[in-house]
Structure formats: structure tokens, C-alpha cells
Amino acid sequence: MSAGDEARLVRQKTEYEEQVGDWYERWGEEQVKNAELEQKLAKSEAERKRLSTQTQDQSKEVNSSLEKVNELQEELERIRTEKQQQDGKLGKLQSQVDNLDALVKVTESTVKDTEEKLREAEKQRDELAATNAGLHAEFDQYEADYTEKLAAFEQNADAQEQLDKVLKLFQEEFTELAKGVNIDDYLKQFRET
User: Fold this and answer.
1) What CA–CA distance (Å, rounded) separates 186 from 38?
2) Which of 18, 2, 17 has its CA nearest to residue 164?
3) Using CA atoms, how far apart are residues 160 and 172, in angstroms rounded to an integer?
4) What are the boundaries of each domain within the chain?
5) C-beta separation of 48 from 128 below 8 A
6) CATH of domain 3-149
7) How many CB atoms lie within 10 A of CB 114?
8) pTM to 2 decimals?
9) Coil, helix or strand for 11?
């Protein structure tokens, strides 16, 4: 092997070592990105669960308020019936009716407010679900890129190992060439190994 060939092989080895170093650095950056995405996903999932729980609680509150409205309306009807039957108790019953009417209005207002909050919570939940889906897609893309880069890195590592073996073989055989081994014999021997 000529000195030029050996120098070329040494340059190639240095280039491969630099590429391996670059791949290690890029791999570390990808690990940081993956960790950040996992944190975002965990935070997003926790917020989604919180909103889901809040939505369920508000739904229960709406249902409870609606039940109260129905009960109050039934009570109001009962009192109105009694009012018609008992003219002597008109003043007292009218006061009860007025109080129940006011309570019904307050409860209906509360129901409307709760329904509005429920709609807002559902909207936030849907927006969060869309954001979550986007983060999952981004994470999947990063994972695919990472897998591809890792495969390329492993392939480069294999190529580096093969290059080191060839370089070592050439260095070992170069000594025999220097002792006068015929180049044809050397190439034949190299092909056989």
C-alpha cells in the first residue's frame, strides 16, 4: 500500500469519526426534544382529565338543578291547587307561591349559568383534544425521525468498524510488502482473506 493510500484511509477514518461524533450530538438533541414532547403530552393529558372531570361535575350540577326546578314546579302547582281550594289561607299561600316563584327564577338562572359554563368547558375540552392530537402527531414524527437517524447512526458505526478492520489488515500486510512480497501474491492473499 502506498503512503498516499494509507493517508487517504486515515483521512476517511477521521471523517467517519467526526460523523459519528455529529450523530452522537444530534442523538442527544433528539433525546432532549423527545423529553420535552413527553412533558407537553403529560401536561396536556392532565389538563384534559381535569376538564373532563369538571365537565362531569357541571353536568351533575345541571341535572341536580333541573331536578330541583321540577320539584319546585310541582310544589308550586300543589300550592296553587291548595290556594284555589282554601280561600281563607290566600295570604299565606300567596306568600309561599311568591317565594317559590322567586326561588324557581333564581334556580333557572343558576341552571342557565351552569349550562353556559358547561358549554365553555366542552369547548375547552375539544380544543385541548385537538391540541393533544397535534402533539401526538408531532411526537410520532419525532419518534420516526429518531428511529431513522438511529438506524443511520448504527449503519455508520458498522461502516467505521469495517473500515478499522480493513485499515488494520492493510497495516499488517504492508510490513510483508516492504520485505519484498510480490504485489500479485499479496493481492491474491488479500482476496483469500
Assistant:
1) 57
2) 17
3) 18
4) 3-149
5) yes
6) 1.10.287
7) 19
8) 0.34
9) helix
